[in-house]
From TrEMBL:
<dbReference type="Pfam" id="PF01228">
    <property type="entry name" value="Gly_radical"/>
</dbReference>
<protein>
    <submittedName>
        <fullName>Formate acetyltransferase</fullName>
    </submittedName>
</protein>
<feature type="domain" description="Glycine radical">
    <location>
        <begin position="723"/>
        <end position="843"/>
    </location>
</feature>
<dbReference type="GO" id="GO:0016829">
    <property type="term" value="F:lyase activity"/>
</dbReference>
<dbReference type="Pfam" id="PF02901">
    <property type="entry name" value="PFL-like"/>
</dbReference>
<dbReference type="InterPro" id="IPR051215">
    <property type="entry name" value="GRE"/>
</dbReference>
<dbReference type="InterPro" id="IPR001150">
    <property type="entry name" value="Gly_radical"/>
</dbReference>
<keyword id="KW-0556">Organic radical</keyword>
<dbReference type="InterPro" id="IPR004184">
    <property type="entry name" value="PFL_dom"/>
</dbReference>
<feature type="modified residue" description="Glycine radical">
    <location>
        <position position="819"/>
    </location>
</feature>
<feature type="domain" description="PFL">
    <location>
        <begin position="47"/>
        <end position="712"/>
    </location>
</feature>
<dbReference type="InterPro" id="IPR010098">
    <property type="entry name" value="PFL2/GDeHydtase_fam"/>
</dbReference>
<keyword id="KW-0456">Lyase</keyword>
<dbReference type="GO" id="GO:0005829">
    <property type="term" value="C:cytosol"/>
</dbReference>
Length: 843
């Protein structure tokens, strides 16, 4: 990088450097390796953790029938009751009757009403796809994300129980309420936008108020609900709805305490018959922990970890929304850490072991997804289990502490998919924390991902929260900032394929090619054959975006109302400010802040397509609009010269610090944000735009016709905020500094639902102390330029190709896909290829 020595002196000079008293177990500058190593030794210093980790990797992914059975049994018994009480009694029936599991070496208990690594079934949301795939596209025969049904008896029972739910699931109601235009543009039609996440599953992407639970325990929260119920007046016009809400809340909280007590009794019984004295004492302690947190507040760090796991897995039992995240864990856990380590002389090593055991445990929950979703987003976990550390406190001061450092150590020692560690950075982030972070990044397992407090806090203020609340934001899912326990933001609500919108812009609102070629899909706002000026092209984009955002948001509002009608969530609502106070479930708008947040995909593809149009059709006038349109209609066949030109540096491309190209990206980015932000939703909140794709750019590309950036039919569209890379080559050619210069010309805070930037360096590019320091300096420069988020793959294309050829040697090799990390060998080949094709950057 330019002037690196000066930057290094400024960064590391004692007079200009923030330091911290926070300490982990290991030296902050310990080197944890450089990328993935075949045949590596165990990473954790704890034998137990290494054994638990290996056991997890060796387990198969299965489908479990028990939740489906118990939920169906309850609904059949309570068919005449109000829906929220049906939900509560079904939750209770599961907790009181599901099989409990305590595995060898466990220190933390609690699963999702299914054995470890087995997925329950949630018929409340959808069943048609389950029936169809069992009969016609077996889960175990998928190309990736396979699941296994244990035996034919279970297979037959699943089919029989699912029949009861036909006509009763959320997806069927949503589909019935959508009009033809909404369906035609959605995943059911031409896939201009996709909202199937919340058609087929519950609402997730939130962080509950863990601090409240840790202070009050279940009994304290139950008391709040009971007292609020007692004060409810029959003069209230909403008396019956509030009455049912309070009853449902009390049922679910009482069920939670009974469920945890069941675990306490099981551990007690196992301890009684355990011959090994060490394990006997562990089981006795586990039992005592469970008895304490069944109703009361935790009294130790171990008990906090135990209650946390119960709280999260109970949320996943109630509904299968993905990205149930953990909030600012180094902050809300800190009082218990301080009490144990400072006051009670508990060794830090024990705290670290508890964290590592918990990290492994976090990977047990798995989620069965439909084949359409799996094609767009690979992964068998719930996904999005983000754990936020670092950043500033409510007063704006650095919040780094011992747990910040220990949680990074636990991450690099376990190197698993979960948790998704999110490190918040700011201008006073301590030097030691920066170095520890970069050493974790250089280890090559995709964690942590980095967030910039300045634009993130500005984005939160743009959603109307207070400055103190904004400073306490946490990350949920991939990159979405939220206020834990206060905001039900409906984040990750849907994916918008902006490249399909551009298809409408260049072709008169008609489908470009394929079996539906020529079909009128959107409004006719002009085509390349009719535009006389480039300004007319930009006006057409604005009109198409307005139309398609209308379709998208109206579809999401229908979905929102159906979830309220079909699947309220009284358990999790108890841990959101405003719900108990107002007597409203969060699905009815009971939370303090309510939003809906869809995200745009393919912005760089659109920007580079615009660059082609501007350069060749208007500036140089070398090609007519018809010639450009014919080239993409014919998938570039017979247009090799034009295809090579469009993919060359003779066209100004986004990602190379060229203002002319970057301004087109800014236009596309701001156009999307403008047409989403501020729309109203049914819960009294506002819509919030995000600009990221996760890995959906690969699946979306499969259904997207050729585009004028030089991609062909079926190729991935651009990922997240990154530059274009087509089969012909990457469009960013000027190195990593040019990329971040382009990316940060945008005001990231306009995307109040977050932005995402992936960068990849081969191992040798960041090797040694110099490589480490350059990467630190590079991150600092990106943050100074107000980028909101960045994450790294430290992995060469050569290594990923080797893993494709010999997957058995790379079984636990994690890669940073987008907002999440995943085992490379478990990804579908199209996604693997997309990762390989991403630009390999060097300083």
């Amino acid at each position: 990088m330019d002037n690196f020595q000066a930057q290094k002196e400024h960064l590391y000079g004692l007079s200009a450097t923030q330091h911290t008293d926070a300490r982990g177990i290991e030296a902050f500058d310990k080197v944890y390796g450089l990328g993935y190593e075949v045949g590596h030794e165990d990473w954790s210093p704890f034998t137990r953790v290494n054994r638990l980790r290996k056991t997890f990797l060796d387990r198969p992914y299965e489908i479990d029938v028990e939740r489906l059975r118990l939920v169906t049994e309850s609904y059949r018994r309570n068919e005449s009751m109000p829906r929220i009480l049906q939900c509560a009694y079904a939750f209770e029936n599961v907790l009181l009757n599901c099989t409990l599991h305590i595995y060898p070496g466990d220190l933390i208990l609690g699963e999702i009403a299914a054995p470890a690594k087995a997925s329950p079934i949630y018929p409340e949301f959808s069943v048609d796809w389950i029936i169809d795939e069992i009969l016609n596209s077996p889960f175990e025969e998928r190309e990736n994300d396979q699941f296994y049904i244990r035996n034919e008896q279970d297979r037959a029972e699943i089919l029989e129980l699912c029949q009861y739910w036909k006509g009763k699931s959320a997806n069927e109601f949503i589909t019935a309420y959508l009009d033809d235009d909404q369906k035609r543009g959605s995943h059911m039609g031409e896939k201009v936008f996709q909202t199937n996440n919340y058609h087929f599953a519950g609402i997730g992407h939130f962080a509950m108020d863990f601090e409240k639970l840790m202070k009050l325990g279940y009994n304290g929260v139950l008391q709040q609900a009971t007292e609020a119920f007692a004060q409810l007046s029959k003069q209230d016009p909403d008396y019956s709805e509030k009455r049912d809400y309070y009853k449902a809340t009390i049922i679910t909280l009482e069920a939670a305490t009974k469920y945890i007590t069941r675990y306490a009794l099981l551990a007690e019984d196992m301890a009684f018959s355990e011959a090994d004295e060490v394990r006997k004492k562990e089981l006795q302690a586990i039992s005592a922990n469970c008895y304490q947190v069944a109703g009361g507040a935790p009294q130790s760090f171990w008990q906090v970890a135990q209650l946390f796991n119960f709280a999260v897995t109970l949320t996943q039992i109630e509904g299968n929304g993905h990205s149930i995240s953990y909030g600012r864990m180094d902050q809300w856990m800190l009082p218990f850490y301080t009490q144990d380590v400072v006051e009670n002389d508990v060794p830090k090593e024990f705290i670290l072991e508890i964290l590592e055991v918990l990290y492994v445990k976090m990977n047990n929950p798995t989620k069965l997804k439909d084949k359409g979703t799996v094609k767009v987003r690979n992964g068998r976990g719930f996904g999005g289990e983000s754990l936020t550390i670092g950043g500033v406190d409510a007063q704006g001061n650095d919040a780094t502490n011992d747990l910040t450092m220990l949680m990074l150590e636990a991450s690099v020692h376990t190197r698993m998919m979960n948790p998704w560690v999110c490190l918040r950075m700011h201008e006073n982030t301590p030097y030691e924390l920066k170095i520890r972070t970069i050493e974790c990044v250089r280890a090559g397992y995709g964690h942590p991902k980095l967030f910039n407090d300045s634009p993130a806090i500005k984005a939160m203020l743009g959603k109307g929260v207070s400055i103190e609340e904004a400073r306490c934001y946490a990350v949920v899912g991939c990159v979405e900032p939220t206020i834990p326990g206060k905001e039900h933001g409906w984040l990750d609500a849907g994916y918008v394929n902006t490249v399909k919108m551009m298809e409408m812009v260049i072709n008169g609102g008609r489908v470009l090619s394929g079996p539906n070629a020529g079909m009128q899909l959107g409004p006719d706002t002009g085509s390349l054959e009719t535009y006389q000026t480039f300004e007319e092209v930009l006006e057409s984009i604005d009109k198409q975006f307005a139309y398609w955002c209308d379709q998208l948001c109206s579809c999401l509002n229908v979905t929102d109302k159906m979830h309220r009608m079909i699947k309220p969530t009284p358990y999790i609502s108890a841990f959101f400010e405003g719900c108990i106070e107002s007597g409203k479930d969060m699905t009815f708008g009971g939370a303090k802040y309510n939003g809906t947040a869809p995200q745009a995909a393919g912005i760089a593809t659109c920007a580079d397509s615009l660059a082609t149009i501007k350069k060749l059709m208007f500036d140089d006038q070398k090609y007519t609009g018809k010639q450009l349109l014919d080239a993409v209609k014919e998938n570039w066949d017979g247009h090799q010269k034009l295809y090579a030109l469009v993919n060359s540096s003779k066209i100004p491309h986004y990602g190379n610090d060229i203002d002319e190209a970057d301004e087109l990206f800014i236009f596309m980015f701001e156009c999307y944000c403008r047409h989403i932000k501020g729309r109203e939703n049914p819960r009294g909140g506002k819509f919030s735009p995000g600009v990221y794709t996760v890995n959906a750019n690969v699946g979306m590309g499969l259904y997207t016709n050729a585009s004028l950036d030089g991609r062909k039919n079926g190729e991935p569209i651009s990922d997240n905020m990154g530059p274009v890379h087509t089969a012909e080559g990457s469009h960013d050619t000027q190195g990593p500094t040019a990329v971040i210069n382009s990316v940060t010309k945008v005001d990231h805070s306009l995307a109040t639902n977050g932005t995402l930037l992936n960068l990849r360096f081969p191992e040798d590019a960041v090797a040694g102390v110099e490589g480490r320091d350059i990467l630190v300096s590079f991150v600092d420069e990106y943050m100074n330029r107000q980028g909101m988020h960045v994450q790294f793959n430290i992995m060469s294309s050569e290594k990923m190709r080797a893993a494709q050829k010999n997957p058995e040697l790379y079984k636990d090799m994690l890669v940073r896909v987008a907002g999440y990390s995943a085992y490379f060998v478990e990804l579908g080949k199209p996604l693997q290829d997309d990762l390989i094709q991403r630009t390999e950057l060097r300083f």
